[in-house]
Design brief:
elongated, alpha+beta, three-stranded antiparallel beta sheet, 6 helices, 6 strands
Length: about 180
């Protein structure tokens, strides 16, 4: 009898734990949402740990742990969570940025981006003065503006431009043939 009870308890814990892990993985990461109050884009982060815990104890709910608008609106009712619940992958910052790069070409070398591989050679952005920055180094509150005002740059060109900027004494410019 004890072994059957222990087995059933183990199965229940495994299922509930699996659901909690799935929930955590689903809601982690920064997202872009359209604020229902101001109708502007805000960068938000769901408290994924709390979401996983709440679903594990049978009381599922979401709340934000960070929002680019919280400083000015601490009494926000977090209606933007509906957008995340409806399409959690579509508003994930990484996916939004991937979609932005997908059909573009590098402003420096002309290479098409296609699918972005996030584990290596992350793309960058270049401003009108020729300065490059990796998109992941841009504060989330400013990222949408950067995507509107900057051009895409591949990792290779970003590394070359960064080296040229940081170590001009080591760069020799040659005339094209």
């Amino acid at each position: 009898m004890w072994t059957l009870s222990a087995f059933l308890l183990g199965v229940v814990l495994l299922v509930v734990g699996g659901i909690a892990v799935f929930t955590y993985l689903r809601y982690r990461g920064a997202r872009f949402v359209k604020c229902p109050e101001t109708h502007t884009i805000a960068a938000v982060t769901v408290d994924a740990g709390d979401a996983a815990w709440s679903i594990a104890i049978g009381n599922p709910h979401l709340h934000l742990s960070q929002c680019t608008r919280f400083e000015g609106a601490p009494t926000c009712d977090q209606d933007c969570l509906r957008q995340i619940e409806f399409a959690p992958e579509d508003c994930l910052v990484r996916n939004v940025v991937s979609h932005w790069y997908k059909d573009r070409q590098c402003a420096m070398c002309g290479q098409m981006f296609g699918e972005i591989h996030w584990h290596d050679h992350k793309p960058a952005l270049i401003d009108h003065e020729g300065r490059t920055v990796q998109w992941s180094d841009v504060p989330l509150a400013n990222l949408v503006g950067y995507l509107d005002t900057h051009q895409p740059v591949c990792w290779n060109c970003h590394i070359v431009a960064t080296f040229r900027h940081d170590h001009p004494e080591l760069v020799t410019l040659r005339k094209e043939r």
